[in-house]
Design a protein that fits this description.
The structure holds two protein chains of two kinds. Chain A is an all-beta fold. In chain B, strand 4 and strand 5 form a beta hairpin.
Chain lengths: 114, 114
């Protein structure tokens, strides 16, 4: 079975500062993909970044980077230079080779203050 | 480029009434299609997925059903809604089932059963 754990129900950060959102996972699949999504108050689920389990380097997409530590089974999202528009729910998710579905964590609500 | 749309965006339905949510993907062929539900303040739960026309897999027993009458059309239905069916429904697609392929979501549909 696959499981995603996000232990931070809420995080606060000041504008222009960096913030790390934690994500740990558990899977028996030897190969898998890890994803982060952003869900603003409108409800739409927006894809942010992807990390493959065999990727040698941590993924980066603009201000987003993924701190992937395979041995610790963690895939933390780092947002640099936070902006007010980053305030949203953030979900970590995983997809294994043997499963069709994307398994989600419970999410972290990020609030960016001026 | 590929796009996904679902409708209606919001609906309020009485208990016992039928439901039909529709989702369409453009710009790709033979996508994998998904229906997710998100209860208030919680993560996403996979309801159904489809790898082709007429092929539907159900993840959880429930009051809902899904159909895929065309390659890029996915419909979520119910004959008689329950109060517990209230929630945020998201349609999604991916190119195939490989772990590295991102799942992209539609705008979502807010359903309130009264």
């Amino acid at each position: 079975a696959q499981k995603i754990t996000q232990t931070q129900p809420g995080m606060f950060v000041q504008e222009k500062e960096a913030v790390t959102l934690d994500c740990t996972y558990d899977t028996s699949d030897p190969s898998y993909g890890l994803f982060w999504y952003k869900q603003p108050s409108s409800g739409e689920m927006i894809f942010l970044i992807y990390q493959g389990s065999y990727d040698q380097q941590n993924a980066t997409e603009g201000r987003y980077s993924l701190n992937f530590q395979k041995a610790r089974k963690s895939a933390n999202l780092v947002i640099s230079a936070s902006q007010l528009g980053d305030s949203a729910m953030y979900f970590c998710a995983m997809r294994g080779w043997s499963f069709q579905k994307l398994v989600f964590g419970t999410g972290t609500r990020l609030l960016v203050s001026p | 480029s590929q796009t996904i749309h679902q409708w209606p965006a919001t609906l309020v339905q009485p208990v016992g009434s039928p439901l039909s949510l529709e989702c369409t993907v453009e710009g790709t062929s033979n996508p994998n299609l998904y229906w997710y539900r998100q209860a208030a303040g919680r993560g996403l739960q996979l309801l159904f997925y489809s790898v082709g026309i007429g092929q539907i897999s159900s993840e959880v027993p429930q009051n809902l059903s899904a159909s895929r009458p065309q390659d890029r059309q996915f419909i979520l239905s119910s004959k008689k809604l329950l109060l517990s069916d209230s929630g945020f429904y998201l349609c999604a697609w991916s190119q195939d089932a490989q772990a590295g392929n991102t799942i992209y979501f539609g705008e979502g549909s807010w359903l309130t059963v009264v």
